[in-house]
Amino acid sequence: MTEEEFLAAYDASAYPRPSVAVDAVLFTIRDDALQVLLTRRQAHPFAGLLSLPGAFVGPEETLDGAAQRALREKAGLQDIFLEQLYTWGDPGRDPRLRVISVSYYALVPEDRIGPLPEGTALYPAHALPTPLAFDHAGIIRLGLERLRGKVSYTDIAFSLVPEEFTLPQLQRVHELLLGQPLYKANFRKKIAGRIEETGKFTSGGKHRPSRIYRKRALPAEPLL
Amino acid sequence: MTEEEFLAAYDASAYPRPSVAVDAVLFTIRDDALQVLLTRRQAHPFAGLLSLPGAFVGPEETLDGAAQRALREKAGLQDIFLEQLYTWGDPGRDPRLRVISVSYYALVPEDRIGPLPEGTALYPAHALPTPLAFDHAGIIRLGLERLRGKVSYTDIAFSLVPEEFTLPQLQRVHELLLGQPLYKANFRKKIAGRIEETGKFTSGGKHRPSRIYRKRALPAEPLL
DNA sequence: ATAGTAAGTAGCAAATCAAAACTAACTGAC
DNA sequence: GTCAGTTAGTTTTGATTTGCTACTTACTAT
Fold it and tell me: Which of A91, B85, B103, B193 has the fewest C-beta atoms under 10 angstroms from its C-beta?
């Protein structure tokens, strides 16, 4: 069968084409823990269970665009770090109809999260309620693995911290993502080239104030 | 609008749902170069251009299953390393109709490739004909990046080499994937724990024969 | 025997990493 | 004021890994 013949048969066939949706795992740091945004489902199936914010992909919409829209509609967030994670397509993962879900993970500092809609809240990523709707537990687990894998060799940790931050703060983010403590001195050497001082200091603590930094715009090295 | 309402509207709407397809980037090492399997398209669109082997996802088929089937049908390959790469969904990437493509990359040692169907052949990954059909050039580029990124901290190189291999062979695979030469002594130290001797040696060369190894089944360490 | 060639090993300096110990700057209790 | 408590930030040291060179080994072809 040629591809064209297949397509013709495909168009004419009785079974419905799959729907394509996106689901987003939105991570943030709150209460010294990594947290995930979940919404409680009202409707069948899995009514009453928590699920990831998602959306069906519109006819003229890109996949990234649909993921952005899902987060805008469900959490009021715009212009945040968003990256594709994995695509889930097992028949039966949605009992209603075949749904292919392109999953994304998103990172946002806590201070950018506004008031959340009724039924939507943050839950600690390492102690999630169980069960979750659909295969969303698996999606979150993969997101956690991806984060852990990428934190050491990319800039993603900066996306979980306000524009201006202290090094203990940034180090703590790394530790939460990696799940293990880091040595202060080594951590500082490693990121020294990716930050710049603001000249400001924290105040109000019962101890030595810490310097406040921001992310360095462009590393000077890659110009070779 | 609730999700249920959306689904109802979605079902009733005039625009067709997207089709979901898979495309596979099959890599192998041949003639001391990394090569990709491509097939020449017969039909519109992009007739005459080279494209990745692909398939539409059947109604009861998993995504992985569809990718396996595509490689079985287009290259006669079974039971090979296959991993999801990225999902491409821009409207307009297929001029006929909206197609969401879940891309995979696959790795196979040359000795497992049999005779290929008419119109299907291997092309050097770093000197591909241009242009390619659809967005397949971008898919291959991403596959190359993924390979390069993963070769140093995973076992993927073993999937590009026969079951029994020499260390110069395995080192060369690493070098081709990384695009840079490696130091023999360091390379050997690094993989020492992941291989085991077969006791056999190559023969017939004009020089010292090299030991033949196989991949070590289970590393002993992860038992803690 | 000797030359050619690629396989495989030894060793060292430089860079990086893990780890502990140290100093600095604030608050609050005395 | 001074001292304890606390966290920020720096210095230092030893272990491990990397970059690199030089060497030895084992085969074939003259």
Answer: B193
CATH code: domain of residue A53: 3.90.79.10
Pick out the nucleotide with least CA–C1' distance to B171. C7
The model's pTM is 0.91
Report, in angstroms and rounded to the nearest whole number, the Rg of chain B calculated over CA atoms. Answer: 21
Per-residue DSSP letter, A93: S
Evaluate whether residue B220 is within a structural domain: no
pLDDT tens digits, one per residue of A149-170: 999 999 999 999 999 999 999 9
* Residue B86 neighbours by CB distance under 10 Å: 19
Strand C positions closer than 7 A to protein CB: 4-11, 17-21, 24-28
In a domain, A85, yes or no: yes
Residues spanned by the domain of B36: 16-150
Handedness of CA A134, A138, A139, A140 (dihedral sign): positive
Whether A223 is in a domain gets the answer no
Put simply, the answer to whether B43 touches A2 (Cβ < 8 Å) is: yes
Q: From the CA of A212, how many Å to the C1' of C23?
A: 20
- Tell me the shortest Cα–Cα distance from B204 to chain A, in angstroms: 44
Confidence band of A97 (pLDDT split at 50, 70, 90): confident
